[in-house]
């Protein structure tokens, strides 16, 4: 039963590779039949749980409720999407985002659920570091707008350079990963080599300090919650 459950969960998740839009697109009828079979298997597994579990315990378990709701949402979305296709009305399969619920909430996925719970418990504790990083990013973006926005600089493509605040935020956010370095700083550097100091300061503060701090906080808190969870203090 465990192997069969994992197989159909994997099959259900892999449908996204073959559903529209997809690189290896299959006919809608084929993918919909496979999805219906997967949902029937999930419903059968849920029915099996209900047979071997006391009724009051079964309905108090939020995992069973989540699975039932995910099955109903998936079937409703599939029916609506199929009906709209008949009338040549374009729509999207919004129920795809609920498919990971099956992976997390079945009893066979206890280890995955514990890891997910550790990630969930870690998020509030890294919020302060993330907000501090965003404050630094927004502040540097405002400085860049004041430094370069009024100098009528152009990029290599002839577009205005650092004249829109939201675009500056995005470009500097990418610069944290060094993916657009040194291209993003070249128009300013060509205007005056002293402007390189701004980007050097930005990389030191945000890439080397904040990213290292962010990684350390995430790692330490995740390790702490994972140790508590697998140590039995946070029972499933």
From TrEMBL:
GO terms for molecular function: monoatomic ion channel activity. Residues 5-224 form the Ion transport domain. One of its GO terms (cellular component) is membrane. It comes from Lophotis ruficrista. It is found in: Membrane. The gene is Tpcn2_0. Pfam families: Ion_trans. Its main location: membrane. The chain crosses the membrane at residues 26-44, 65-84, 126-147, 159-176, 196-219. It comes from the Eukaryota. Keywords: Membrane, Signal, Transmembrane, Transmembrane helix. It is a multi-pass membrane protein. InterPro entries: Ion_trans_dom. SUPFAM superfamilies: Voltage-gated potassium channels (SSF81324). This is TPC2 protein. Residues 1-16 form the signal peptide.
């Amino acid at each position: 039963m465990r192997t069969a459950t994992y197989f159909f969960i994997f099959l259900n998740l892999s449908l996204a590779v073959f559903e529209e839009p997809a690189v290896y697109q299959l006919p809608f009828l084929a993918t919909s039949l496979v999805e219906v079979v997967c949902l029937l298997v999930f419903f059968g597994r849920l029915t099996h749980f209900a047979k071997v579990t006391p009724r009051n315990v079964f309905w108090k378990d939020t995992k069973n409720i989540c699975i039932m709701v995910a099955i109903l949402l998936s079937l409703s979305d599939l029916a609506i999407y199929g009906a709209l296709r008949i009338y040549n009305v374009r729509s999207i399969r919004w129920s795809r985002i609920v498919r990971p619920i099956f992976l997390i909430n079945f009893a066979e996925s206890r280890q995955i659920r514990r890891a997910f719970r550790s990630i969930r418990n870690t998020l509030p504790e890294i919020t302060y570091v993330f907000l501090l990083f965003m404050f630094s990013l927004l502040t540097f973006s405002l400085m860049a707008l004041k430094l370069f926005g009024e100098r009528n600089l152009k990029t290599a493509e002839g577009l205005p350079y650092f004249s829109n605040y939201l675009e500056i935020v995005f470009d500097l956010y990418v610069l944290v990963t060094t993916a657009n370095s040194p291209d993003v700083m070249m128009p300013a550097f060509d205007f005056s080599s002293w402007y390189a100091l701004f980007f050097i300061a930005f990389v030191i503060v945000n890439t080397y300090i904040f990213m290292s701090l962010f990684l350390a906080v995430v790692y330490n808190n995740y390790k702490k919650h994972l140790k508590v969870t697998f140590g039995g203090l946070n029972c499933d």
